[in-house]
Design a protein that fits this description.
By secondary structure, the protein is of the alpha/beta class. Helices cover 40% and strands 18% of the residues. Strands 2-1-3-4-5 form a five-stranded parallel sheet, with helices on both faces. Helix 4 links the parallel strand 4 and strand 5.
């Protein structure tokens, strides 16, 4: 279901173990209703309580990686098509293979605010 962006702000979940990255990303998405999670475990809880239009997730986090979080979603979950990864470093071969198989978009840190907004708007419109 596509939300009418003019009548309701898209709900975006931002998952990153770095607090400053969560806050900066949320500030850049002032046109969205943002929710923040410091871990994949917290994100899973929020995803059971709230319907999100897009998920922005750090790829490398302690305990559960972004790829593991994505894989934990039900195969028929609409969020599988509204997921955006971000990462600040080189990616291990296993994660590169995962990205190639899933075709989930990825933003490399540091990214421009315009890149972030464009990526999120594209996900929400899908």
């Amino acid at each position: 279901m596509v939300r009418d962006v003019e009548s309701e702000s898209p709900r975006v979940l931002i998952i990153d173990d770095d607090e400053s990255m969560r806050l900066t990303t949320a500030a850049a998405l002032e046109h969205c209703e943002t929710y923040l999670a410091e871990s994949a475990a917290r994100a899973v809880k929020l995803m059971t309580e709230i319907r999100f239009d897009a998920v922005i997730c750090d790829m490398v986090m302690p305990a559960m990686t972004g790829a593991e979080l994505y894989d934990s979603l039900p195969v028929d979950s609409v969020l599988r098509h509204r997921f955006l990864f971000m990462t600040g470093g080189g990616l291990p071969v296993a994660i590169q293979s995962f990205l190639a198989l899933t075709a989930v978009p990825i933003l490399k840190k540091p990214f421009r605010v315009s890149q972030l907004r464009e990526a999120v708007d594209s996900l929400v419109a899908s």
